[in-house]
Automatic annotation (TrEMBL):
It holds the Pfam family Beta-lactamase. Residues 37-395 form the Beta-lactamase-related domain. This is Class A beta-lactamase-related serine hydrolase. The keyword Hydrolase applies. Keywords: Hydrolase. GO terms for molecular function: hydrolase activity. Gene3D superfamilies: DD-peptidase/beta-lactamase superfamily (3.40.710.10).
Length: 421
């Protein structure tokens, strides 16, 4: 290789690295015009944030929402307030809400054995006489191992299900099943305070329970009973329900100093649908990504958060009774010294005083493929913060399991809208 070619390639590499480290300068998708715009632009530069969708709620309304940066770098599409992103684990709150709607109809009690609904015996083989209950699934105390120790079985199961003849939960959960592995289970008894383990697979089982109890596909159930009633018209668990695929933002992972496109890099082409017409609801549970596959934006997500802030109702649409909301937000599990990210939980709701220091917040965060999202509210002062980022160079934070990007955005929004007032 000639010295010229070597120098040229080195220059191109540097140019690529500069571009990817300076996405907000190419030029910015939207020039800052207000103080909050300038603060957000500064954070985006500091943390190489590709795009942001964010909203702030106070009392019964959204007092601010906006969108910044890029939804698709290759196609140079900016994030707008209509852009939707896969929001990762905040999705679990919708799964829990779906199940609690069935609870309100008297179809089960929280401490019932889920085996009676699943249609097969579901037991930790280390404790064959101890039932796994609905409450256990909603509090991550079922004694299923956390994903890393359990072999990322939710990923294995989800990938195996991307065809018209998906495996069943029995294939995964019953000893001898073709996808079963012993690492699925911890040695703790279901419900033991020490057995808390954050488990994505649990949400797939909950989605299957919702399908069993409702007789509908999970995506259809959520669309009809939560999303559309709340006016979340662009939000869905099923990408086929999206009207304009160009409103879907790409998720970018940070790899060795540059961004790599990952989830939802579809180039404006909706994927071919999988024929699940023969699928029997309740036999799989993973098809629509209940553990993290909801696509939405901050403005629409605020409608869901407001419903919980107002006892289950927003703008005339009631998704839960007040008593059920209070139950979901009440402490169901608490233990010191397990995991700084989760030391207290309601029925799927994360309870923390670390999102905003010394403010007791209810909600959930999301982290997948380079995306970080957060939706948390404070009941006492009646405010809430939502953000979704689709790529950054985030590193470890200083409190409660949140990373430095999550901390910086939540702190900035809280200080701008509330602390300075």
């Amino acid at each position: 290789m000639s010295m010229w070619n070597h120098s040229w390639q080195k220059a191109k590499h540097a140019e690529r690295e500069f571009f990817e480290m300076s996405l907000w300068k190419q030029p910015p998708a939207k020039a800052p015009t207000t103080q909050i715009d300038e603060k957000m632009a500064a954070l985006m530069e500091t943390f190489a944030i590709v795009g942001v969708s964010a909203a702030v709620v106070k009392d019964k309304q959204v007092i601010w929402s906006d969108a910044y940066g890029w939804a698709d770098l290759d196609r140079e599409l900016p994030v707008t307030e209509e852009t939707v992103f896969r929001i990762a684990s905040i999705s679990k709150l919708f799964v829990a809400t779906s199940l609690m709607q069935q609870y309100e109809q008297g179809k089960f009690q929280l401490d019932d054995d889920i085996s009676d609904t699943l249609g097969f015996t579901f037991r930790n083989p280390h404790h064959p006489d101890v039932p796994v209950t609905f409450r256990h699934l909603l509090t991550h105390t079922s004694s299923l191992n956390e994903d890393e120790r359990g072999g990322e079985l939710y990923v294995v199961f989800s990938q195996a299900s991307r065809n018209s003849n998906p495996p069943t939960l029995e294939d995964l959960l019953i000893p001898g099943g073709r996808l079963y592995v012993d690492s699925l289970w911890s040695s703790y008894k279901p419900g033991d305070v020490r057995c808390f383990a954050y488990c994505n697979l649990a949400s797939m089982i909950v989605a299957a329970l919702v399908e069993r109890l409702s007789g509908k596909h999970f995506d259809q159930y959520c669309r009809e009973h939560i999303l559309r009633p709340l006016g979340m018209t662009s939000s869905d668990f099923n990408i086929q329900a999206m009207g304009d695929i160009n409103k879907l933002g790409v998720i970018y992972g940070w790899e060795d100093g540059h961004f790599e496109s990952g989830v939802d890099d579809l180039k404006g082409v909706k994927p071919e649908p999988i024929d699940w017409s023969e699928y029997v609801p309740g036999t799989n549970g993973s098809l629509y990504g209940p553990q993290g596959g909801l696509r939405t934006n901050a403005r629409e997500l605020s409608k869901f958060m407001l419903a919980f802030m107002q006892g289950g109702e927003n703008n005339g649409a009631r998704i839960l009774q007040r008593e059920t909301v209070e139950l979901m937000l009440s402490t169901q599990w608490q233990y010191e010294g397990v995991d700084p990210a989760f030391s207290e939980i309601g029925l799927q709701f994360h309870i923390t005083d670390q999102f905003i220091p010394n403010k007791r917040m209810h909600g959930h965060g999301g982290n997948a493929y380079g995306l970080y999202s957060g939706m948390y509210f404070n009941k006492e002062e009646n405010f809430g913060i939502i953000f979704i980022t689709n790529g950054s160079n985030a590193t470890e934070g200083t409190r409660g399991g949140f990373n430095n990007v999550e901390e910086a955005i939540s702190d900035m929004l809280y200080q701008h809208f509330f602390q300075s007032k």
